[in-house]
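Quick one: structure tokens for this chain, please?
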Amino acid sequence: MEQKKNVVLIGMTGAGKTTVGISLSYRLKMPFVDMDSWIEKKAGKSIPQIFADEGEEAFRALETEAARKLGEENGMIISTGGGVVMRPENMEHLKKNAIVVYLNRSIEDIVKTLRMEKRPMLAGKTDTLYPMYEKRHPLYLSYADIEVVNHSDFKEGVENVYRALADKL
């Protein structure tokens, strides 16, 4: 029996990875997992709480463990955290059996819909998104098999990703 590839969604915080991932899982009839939720379940606390109690390094270690475990799966839609690309080993694990899709959404569009209280790396300031994007954008591009620019509404964003994946799965 042929193994089905994973679809790994990468991109900035607020780019729509989880929202698009959930919808894609229905369209492609593949299970969905949100890496941040996986980490929260494993740690027994929220990501902001992990940052507050243990710091970023502890969170990143959990993120690497999640990448390793999820990279061993088949036929899943995996939504990653925005910083997953900061450790090359994370992407090595995730790319083993996956098509990596970079959801590239402008900072201006992200700011319109972002819930700041759930984003510990932003410390409540949207102006930190610009330097973060400058640092991460080249990494997203280097790891992506497909880039989908997402400056449209939710439905169109999902449709664009679905079309980009159509001949790859």
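The mean pLDDT is 87.
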